[in-house]
Sequence to fold (380 residues):
Amino acid sequence: MHNFIFHNPTRLIMGKGMISELEKEIPADKKIMITFGGGSVKKNGVYEQVKKALANHDTIEFWGIEPNPAIETLRKAIELGKKEKVDFLLAVGGGSVIDGTKLISAGLLYEGDAWDLVVKGSSGKTVPMATVLTLPATGSEMNNGAVISRRETKEKLSFFADFPLFSILDPEVTFSLPPHQIACGLADTFVHVLEQYLTKTGESRVMDRWAEGLLHTIVEIAPLIKENHTDYQLMADFMMSATMALNGFIAMGVTEDWSTHMIGHELTALCGLTHGHTLAIVMPGTMYVLRQQKKAKLLQFGERIFGVVSGTDEMRIDETIRKTEAFFRSLGLTTRLSEENIGIEVIDEIERRFNERNVHYGEDGLVTGSVAREILLHVM
Fold:
C-alpha cells in the first residue's frame, strides 16, 4: 500500500424526503444561486421540494447547464452570480450540473476568464456549494473533481476545486430517469471502480475487496433495475454505489489508471456521445491492449466478479473481456465505435491531440497517442 492522506469533508444526507433538510443546512443569511440543467426537476417534483425548503432564503436561479457543461454557459452563470453578489451555490441535478457549479464556485472569486482555471486544472478559492443529486453516475456529489467542455474548440478537460459542503441523495428522485440515462450511469459507476481497481495486484486487500463489493453490487442490481427502476432499495443501492465509486474511499494507497476516461472525454468532445456510453466502448479495448500489463489484476477481476476460472491465462483474460463487454451490452449500450458511426478520422484526431499534449496516461504512463489509437481500433 502506498502512502496517502485521505480527507473527504462532504456531509452525505441520504433518504426519502431529505430534500427538506436544505432549510437548516444552508445558513439563513446566505444569498443562494440554485443551478439547474433542463426542466426535468419540474416534472419529477424536485424543484417544488427545493423551493419549499428554501422558501425563507434569498435565492436566484440559473437554468441551462447542459450535459458536458460548457464554459460558454458557465460564464453566464458566473456573470449573474457576481452581479447578484451570490455567496452560496446549490447544484440541483446530475454530475454535469454539479461539475459546472464547481467551476462557477471558483469563477465567482476569479477576475479573469474561468476557462483559465480549467486549463490550469484547479482553483484554491471557491464559494461554498452543496448539491441535490438527481442522477447517480459521476460521484461529483462527494468529490472535488469536475470535467468542463469548451464547444468552440471541442475540448473537454478535468478541473479540481473544493468538495461540496453537503449532498442530499433521495432515491425517489431517480424513478423518472430515462432508461438510457440509467444505463450510462451504471456504466460510468462500473468503470469508475475499474479505473481504481484494474491496475496492480497486492497493493491493498481492503481496497480490492471494497472495489469488488461495488462491482458485484452493480452487476447484481443492473438487470433488476432494468425490470423495475422505481424500486426504492435498488435505486438506493445504485445511488450509494455511484457515490462510493468516486469519493476517494476505494483509492486509498493504490495505483490508479484513468486512461479510459481520458480517451472517453475526447469521444464526447468530438462526437457528443454520453460520457458513460464512451466508457462502455473504450474499456474493453483498454483491457485488451494492456492485457499483459494488467494480466494479474484481469485474472483476479475475472475470477472474483464473473467467475472465470477455467482455461489458460490468456483464455481467461479473453473471457473476462467478453463478459465485461456483455455486461455493458446488457445495459442496452453499444460497445463499438462503428455502431455509433464513429470512424477513423475521429481516431486520427484523438491520436493527434494526445501526441500534441505529449500525454502518458495509465498506471504505468503507457497510454500515449499511438496506444490510444490501438485501443480505439480494437473497438471499431
User: Anything to note?
Assistant: Residues 82 and 108 are 6 Å apart (CA to CA). The chain has 15 helices and eight strands.
